Amino acid sequence: MLCKQNLETPTVKAMLNTYHSSKLCSNQCGSSLVQTIDAPLPLVWSLIRRFENPQGYKLFVKKCTMLAGDGGIGSVREIMVTSGLPAGVSVERLDKLDDDKHVLKFSIIGGDHRLVNYSSTITVHEEEEKYGGKTVAIESYVVDVPAGNSVEDTCSFANTIIACNLRSLAKITEEMVCKAK
Ligand code: A8S
């Protein structure tokens, strides 16, 4: 299941092919979401790259505690989720952090929620001038479909959270640009 995006520019297609086309096993599902952001890439990346500070833009994080490391590859964080969601905590490991290519990957390795074997990749790139020249963030994930759940329900749950996070990332960085003017 791939979210239909109106943003199929050559660069987005290339990024999807290079970083967001992980193979799915039969009991898994995944998707990718694209968000255009009217703020400079270095600013957008500076928020994304802080694995130890997900509350910098993620909406449903009440608290983040580092269980290992301080934000480098291999670091493990425990996230307390805001109330009202069907989860309390999530334990997550940073698998990749590439400051040159602007790629971050993390996996969920524990918690009391239903996103088992979840792993995600977020990348950012600058769009070509003829397509608007803005910053584009792409986030994709793969996750197990729990027994008794459908692919649609599993993906729409994850997609909703990720879409909120990406919109929040855009809003926060766009406001930072606005205030600096
Ligand atoms: C992210 C993406 C997701 C986070 C989900 C999908 C989660 O933090 C929330 C509710 C859950 O039930 C699962 O990039 C979990 O954070 C908000 C606790 C993992």
Secondary-structure blueprint of this entry?
Layout: H1 10-19, E1 28-37, H2 41-48, E2 61-68, E3 76-81, E4 89-98, E5 103-111, E6 119-126, E7 135-144, H3 151-180
Antiparallel strand pairs: 1-7, 2-3, 3-4, 4-5, 5-6, 6-7
The structure holds ligand A8S.
* Helix/strand class: alpha+beta
Bound molecules: ligand A8S
Distance between the termini: 41 Å
Count all strands and give the number: 7
**What's the average pLDDT?**
94
Keywords: Abscisic acid signaling pathway, Cell membrane, Cytoplasm, Membrane, Nucleus, Protein phosphatase inhibitor, Receptor
Pfam family, one: Polyketide_cyc2
Family: Belongs to the PYR/PYL/RCAR abscisic acid intracellular receptor family.
GO molecular function: abscisic acid binding; protein phosphatase inhibitor activity; signaling receptor activity
Report on the structure:
With 181 residues, this protein is an alpha+beta fold. The N and C termini lie far apart (41 Å). The chain has one domain: Alpha-D-Glucose-1,6-Bisphosphate, Chain A, domain 4. It is globular and about 45 Å long. It is built from three helices and seven strands. 31% of the residues are buried. A seven-stranded antiparallel β-sheet has the order 1-7-6-5-4-3-2, sandwiched between helices. Its main location: membrane. One of its GO terms (cellular component) is nucleus. Keywords: Abscisic acid signaling pathway, Cell membrane, Cytoplasm, Membrane, Nucleus, Protein phosphatase inhibitor, Receptor. One of its GO terms (molecular function) is signaling receptor activity. It is found in: Cell membrane; Cytoplasm; Nucleus.
